[in-house]
Amino acid sequence: MYQREVKTKGYHSLLVWQRMKELLILVYELTKKLPKTEDFGLRSQIQRAIVSVISNFVEGYLKSSKKEKLHFLEIAETSLMEVEAQGEICFILKYWSSEDYQRFEGKRGEVGYLLLMLL
Asked: CA-to-CA distance for 88 and 110, rounded, in angstroms?
């Protein structure tokens, strides 16, 4: 039987990637708490934003020119700011508890710091 060898991509070993994955999982977990009326609103928006953070980070990581790398990292950082604002909205509207929001904000802050260190 043929087994395809799975290779680890270079960025998978980076701490920022690992924290982004954790934030992605947390965002998807927490957005399950949003009411059904937010399916195509806030839930969809925050999920797209966190996917944008990761996608732009990876695209920037793979660029060879420093200018292009920085461009995509800045987009990732901007998308993370969207995630931050949307998380605040979830808390303000009482969709998330204080504990949920603190977990979210802690992980989001970690990702933000690590992204900033790459700029």
From this structure: 16
Instruction: Name the token pair of 5.
Output: 């060898």
pTM given for the model? 0.90
Which tens digit of pLDDT belongs to each residue from 73-103?
Answer: 999 999 999 999 999 999 999 999 999 999 9
CA dist list (Å): 55 to 2, 17, 62: 31, 11, 11
CA within 13 Å, CB half, 29: 10
Q: How far apart are CA 116 and CA 83, in angstroms?
A: 16
CATH topology of domain 12-118: de novo design (two linked rop proteins) (1.20.1440)
Q: Are 90 and 101 in contact (CB under 8 A)?
A: yes
